[in-house]
Design brief:
The complex is a heterodimer of chains A (119) and B (108). Chain A has 119 residues and is mostly beta strands. In chain A, 0% of the residues lie in helices and 50% in strands. In chain A, strands 2, 4, 5, 6, 9, 10 and 11 form a 7-stranded mixed beta sheet that branches. In chain A, strands 1-3-8-7 form a 4-stranded antiparallel beta sheet, with no helix packed on it. With 108 residues, chain B is mostly beta strands. In chain B, strands 2, 4, 5, 6, 9, 10 and 11 form a 7-stranded mixed beta sheet that branches. Chain B is globular. Chain B starts with a strand and ends with a strand. Classes of the chains: A mainly beta (119), B mainly beta (108). Chains A and B meet through strand 4 and strand 5 of A and strand 5, strand 9 and strand 10 of B.
Chain lengths: 119, 108
């Protein structure tokens, strides 16, 4: 079955960076875009961008442009999200999500990774 | 930027009732709309895509309708496991981009 399994909880200090992994299985990794979404009580669900695992092409919304980098390692079917210059407002649950048709909804979600920014 | 607005924010209902949730787009989005259900501590679960197509394994009591700017999620005969938060999502075809509504909480 299709699975997206994310790395565990992170605690970071303001100004630091965090890198979250999303290991996929049960389908052809290169065949489906992966999006990243975060959830906070204040902002709700926020879309952070996507990566095409086949080409490595990425796209980010203006909100996160310059601060987030999405990458992938096709040898281990894993996608990564790195967020830099963390502030308290970046405390959130981060999700990786599969897009079944590149420009569609999210059909499979990772379990989420809690990132807490605290001094 | 398209803004998705859901109403109401909270809906208090009883099991067995029919529930109607609304989602409005700030401009026309055709039928590029999905609905998700989220329970505490879980990731969102897709219910509907293309405004009216049920996702895999979603019971028939969930239905979606609408196009353009006005969309509705209907849950017939609400079950105990349906108490959750529901989100609508607009998606663009190319380049892909997602925008979520703020959610509607369905509570007992």
């Amino acid at each position: 079955q299709v699975l997206l399994v994310q790395s565990g909880t992170e605690v970071k200090k303001p100004g630091a960076s965090v890198k979250v992994s999303c290991k996929t299985s049960g389908y052809t990794f290169e065949g489906y875009f992966i999006h990243w979404v975060r959830q906070t009580p204040a902002q709700g669900l926020e879309w952070m961008g996507w990566i095409n695992p086949n080409s490595g092409a990425t796209n980010y919304p203006q909100t996160f442009q310059g601060r987030v980098t999405l990458t992938r390692d096709t040898s281990i079917n894993t996608a990564y999200m790195e967020l830099r210059s963390l502030s308290y407002d970046d405390t959130a649950v981060y999700y990786c999500v599969r897009d079944p048709r590149a420009g569609d909804y999210g059909d499979y979600w990772g379990q989420g990774t809690l990132v807490t920014v605290s001094s | 930027e398209i803004v998705m607005t859901q109403s109401p924010g909270i809906l208090s209902v009883s099991p067995g009732e029919r529930v109607t949730l609304s989602c409005r787009a700030s401009e026309s989005i055709s039928t590029n709309l999905a609905w998700y259900q989220q329970k505490p501590g879980q990731a969102p679960r897709p219910l509907i895509y293309g405004a009216s197509t049920r996702a895999t394994d979603i019971p028939a009591r969930f239905s979606g309708s609408g196009s353009g700017t006005e969309f509705t999620l209907t849950i017939n005969s609400l079950q105990s496991e349906d108490f959750a938060v529901y989100y609508c999502q607009h998606y663009t075809n190319w380049p892909p981009a997602w925008t979520f509504g703020q959610g509607t909480k369905v509570e007992i």
